[in-house]
Design goal:
The chain contains six helices and three strands; from the N terminus they run αβββααααα. It is mainly alpha-helical.
């Protein structure tokens, strides 16, 4: 990774940004203006968002230039540039204690959606869209259920009307039969 970072950094012109794909990894390079004399390289998997990677690099480089004096790293950087030697693992131009902000940024940017407001808003929009689709589906399902209920209520209404008519007929016939039995002689004039 150190060799890849050094190589892509050397081949990136000042004020340029580029991403180089190598197998499953992408090296994102941000070269500051020549007057600053630094470049930042972020090696990530190929799925890490490019815009977030360059945002992280930009913030790190800005913070580095503000917090770490150029005199503390410039001589070592010139030595690396002239000899081509890469510091061994664990060694670096600037100690972690001199620039602890790098670890903070790396921890914060592990989840790009949490670090980047645009990705966070996009994620919230996607979540809202899913909820809305589910709500619309349930409303449509309720609409179908309501149509079925309306059909059933119409059928029940017709059945209840038929029942009412037949009950009325039965009641009339029972009333007529009952009237004849109660008053069998009144119809004939015998009282």
């Amino acid at each position: 990774m150190a060799f890849m970072a050094k190589t892509v950094s050397e081949r990136t012109q000042p004020t340029q940004r580029q991403s180089i794909q190598e197998n499953n990894f992408t090296a994102h390079v941000h070269a500051r203006p020549a007057v600053d004399g630094i470049s930042g390289v972020l090696v990530s998997d190929s799925e890490y968002p490019v815009r977030v990677a360059f945002s992280l690099l930009n913030k790190l480089l800005e913070e580095f230039l503000m917090k770490v004096p150029k005199s503390s790293w410039q001589a070592q950087a010139m030595d690396i540039a002239s000899t081509g030697s890469i510091p061994s693992k664990g060694d670096g131009i600037v100690r972690t204690s001199d620039f602890p902000f790098a670890q903070d940024y790396l921890a914060r940017y592990q989840d790009p959606r949490q670090a980047d407001t645009i990705l966070r808003v996009q994620q919230e929009l996607d979540d809202t869209k899913i909820v809305l689709h589910n709500t619309i589906d349930s409303v449509l399902q309720r609409g179908e259920d309501l149509d079925k209920l309306v059909e059933k209520s119409g059928s029940l209404s017709q059945q209840s009307k038929m029942f009412y008519k037949s009950a009325k007929k039965v009641r009339m016939s029972v009333f007529m039969c009952g009237a004849l039995r109660l008053f069998p002689y009144s119809c004939c004039g015998f009282m």
